[in-house]
Amino acid sequence: MMAQYLELKAGYTDALLFYRMGDFYEMFFDDAVAAAEALDIALTKRGKHAGKDIPMCGVPVHAAEGYLLTLIRKGFRVAVCEQMESPAEAKKRGYKSVVKRDVVRLVTPGTLTEEALLEPRRHNYLAAFAEVRDASALAWVDISTGAFHVMPLATVRLSPELARLSPSELIVSEAKEPEFFELVSDFGLALTGIARSAFDSAAAEKRICDLFNIATLDAFGGFSRAEISAMGALIDYLEITQKGKLPLLRPPQKESETRSVQIDAATRRNLELTHSMTGGRAGSLLSIMDRTCTAGGARLLERRIASPSRSLETVIKRLDAISFCTEQRRLVQDVRDHLRKVPDLDRALSRLSLDRGGPRDLAAIRNGLAEAELLSSQLASFELPDLLNTAAKSLTGHTDLITLLDSALVAEPPLLSRDGGFIAEGYNDDLDESRKLRDEGRSVIAEMQQSFVSVTGISTLKIKHNNVLGYFVETTATHADKMLAPPLSETFIHRQTTANQVRFTTVELSEMETKILNAGNHALEIEKRLFESLKTAILESAAQIGVTASALAEIDLAAGLADLALAENWTRPKVDNSRAFDIKAGRHPVVERALAQQSGDPFIANDCDLSASNTDANIWLLTGPNMAGKSTFLRQNALIALMAQMGSFVPAASAHIGMISQLFSRVGASDDLARGRSTFMVEMVETAAILNQADDRALVILDEIGRGTATYDGLSIAWATLEHLHDVNRSRALFATHYHEMTALSGKLDGVDNATVAVKEWEGEVIFLHEVRKGAADRSYGVQVAQLAGLPDAVIARARVVLDALEKGEREGGATQKTLIDDLPLFSVSATPAPAPSQKSEVEEQLKAVMPDELTPREALDLLYKLKEAVKD
To answer: Can you give the pLDDT at residue 834?
Structure first.
């Protein structure tokens, strides 16, 4: 056995080998040590090898999925080795023969299909990047849904696309694998290097044609050699990991960078589109917008948020669909009730194609298609907008398949086909007979006994059973002569004579005995055979089922976004090809939801008008204190633009958005110690990316450029950055800063306007109004904010002294910074003593004794005069 293990393990040195031993998957040697630590399970030993104990650990087969998920998340790959025959079959070859085993699958992060291993509302992409001469391309596939895409892509654009897709695994040529180590570390995905031969474009083209059973790729459109190479590498990797059992993939769809708004990784992170800064879904834009009822609809929503469209026609069609749904509230409620009953058709179909499906996947297809038919009939009487009309037409055409599955399957099938019991009664006569024999063997024998009594006329005749003879007919010796004489002797065969009884058998009884003993296994075999036939019928309609699944997702998303718009008071944006950017009473959807849940406070809405001519930039230079809401204002306008171009209503009283080509955000920063980058360096790298890439259709939001270095260095960098955005990039932009000197640029640059977040100062404290107004702030209120943060009173007092001295020197001029510092007394506790504990005044003492509910109006008025007199004193 161990020789067999070592032979199999030699083919999968970079993976843990799950070696099937009856009801367990067992691991040995280094695999056992690593798995035991990762899974927190016991490490034992089994036998010896080269004179040393062999480490061993194992996990139960029935619970293997949970352990697999843990290992995959911790960066392991797992080769699953199954028994290819039973121990009884192995013994036929010899007493010491080892059961045949082989690896049936290599489990990697990008090749998961099991329901328990996947997030139902997210795609699980496997991507491949190929370079052919001077060209390169990226292909990606989700084998759990069949989605297959490819696009030409320059190497410098790989990072933004990986940020958009968030694949679980990236395949590259093993010769270039080291070049991608640093890149993938940013995204937490698995990097897999495979042989260069897998990227050969000539072999890849044949591989693709064989997969889709076509003679030429022209049927799918024109592809470059790099695109063919990337797609072929994906298919080759799937053949390796799935051991030749390829998933059911849809024809590859060619994408283009120009079809969607370009958003880099830093911007996605800053705006928290699909994940919050903490890495989870909660707190992201996706979490706020997701009101879908189906897993397919949720995945479509994530794709839309990650890839806002640059096609005006597409955006308008999506908005029309949502508008229709907001007007037909009763219909949409009924539609959503149906959608809640729709299972995940895509993933059920994928599991069936890979032989990993079960009876519940058959039922999922049946139930999903049945609900699609009901939806179609419900929508038939309405004049639908183009997007919904196309989707509604794709819901039908499955009547025969639904009828077949409905007649064949029970309402609630078991999880595994080997459990049986999923085929409905009356569907197959042989199965019904086997089940009757299995479940009602005694009644069948009783019926046969009554038949024998009628034939022989012997009322005392019995059919009995023992472990030696099995089933037999027994009668008393008195009636034996009749049984032994013709014509009964032709039917009843003598088996045994005892002192008082004579025992017989018949051909019919022997056959029935065999049927009863084998009925259980026979029933299971029949069900397995029927399962295969039903699976085949489904896979023959796979393409049409996939179209229906996409249509259900489209309807679900439109209905979900309409439900969101009605509940949160969102409005339809006007989207066109102008350079307009005019938002009235815009709100940040995530912050607004958080306020409502935490404190119940309303969100202060604000306008933003960056509308400009077709040739001029338009930039708002935003000043105001920290914590006043500048960053929120910047983000909310970027999110509103993104939502508009993904085809959604937006949180605003009105919005007019001219199509944007790129969205850039540099809001907040942290250091990157792993790469040796300070906070300022990270800030500068992100700013450089914006200035080098932004075009005149881009929307840029920048916050506090230059804050990570010396004051004059930072001011000069921020100043030059704003000028470059205005003169060279000519973008629409929001630029927040604490450098009030920059407000002078509004008088020098035609496209720059000043705006500020309003505050009110009262009794030395600052009150944030969260209102954005035209104009410039004259102060940053940093000391007041520091006081709100809880800095000691002594520090706040000292800071005020220093600030007053510096501001006085700047106003008066002539005094150098060194002179000002020399003139300031050194900080000391005695110089700014901590305030003494306050003593309660007479007024406070009187108020403490007052019980307002017990006062008459006259008494309250007298008390007020009394307190006023006390204050005068």
So the answer is: 47
Tens of pLDDT along 690-703?
999 999 999 999 98
Question: CB-side exposure of 31: number of CA atoms within 13 Å?
Answer: 25
Interval 242-296: pLDDT, tens: 988 888 899 999 998 889 999 998 899 899 999 988 878 899 999 999 999 999 9
Within this chain, do residues 771 and 817 fall inside the same structural domain, yes or no? no
636 shares its domain with 768? yes
624/772 Cα distance (integer angstroms):
9
- Is 87 within the bounds of a domain? yes
The answer, yes or no, to whether residue 347 has pLDDT greater than 90, is yes
CA gap 360, 795 in Å, rounded: 67
| 550-575 pLDDT, tens digit each | 999 999 999 999 999 999 999 999 99
Same domain, 638 and 754: yes
Is 84 annotated in a binding site? The answer is: no
Q: Specify whether 635 is located in the same domain as 672.
A: yes
Q: Residues 772, 680: one domain?
A: yes
Which CATH number is 744's domain given?
3.40.50.300
pLDDT of residue 829: 44
Query: How far is the C-alpha of 590 from the C-alpha of 169, rounded, in Å?
Result: 30
Residue 489 and residue 344 share a domain:
no
Residue 86 counted as an annotated binding residue: no
Annotated binding residue 625: yes
Pair (742, 593) in one structural domain: yes
To the question of whether residue 813 is assigned a binding role by annotation, the answer is no
Helices (H), 101-224: 158-165, 181-185, 201-212
Query: What's 46's domain CATH number?
Result: 3.40.1170.10
Specify the pTM: 0.83
631 marked ligand binding residue: yes
CA distance 366 to 708: 60
Main-chain dihedrals φ then ψ at residue 784, nearest 5 degrees:
-65, -40
Check whether 628 is labelled as a binding-site residue.
yes
* Whether pLDDT at 337 is above 90: yes
Residue 55 annotated as binding site: no
| Boundaries of domain holding 299 | 292-397+541-567
Q: Any idea which of 326-335, 357-366, 457-466 has the lowest mean pLDDT?
A: 457-466
Asked, for residue 629, whether it belongs to a domain, the answer is yes
- Concatenating the DSSP letter of every residue in 633-697 gives HHHHHHHHHHHHHHT--BSSSEEEEE--SEEEEE-----BGGGTB-HHHHHHHHHHHHHHH--TT
* Angle made by CA atoms 626, 629, 635, in degrees to the nearest 5: 120
627 is in an annotated binding site: yes
Domain total for the chain? 7
What tokens appear for 575 in the block?
Answer: 């989207």
> Are 630 and 653 in a shared domain?
yes
CA dist 591 and 603 (Å) reads 8
Task: State percent of the chain over pLDDT 90.
Answer: 56
Q: How many CB atoms lie within 10 A of CB 120?
A: 13
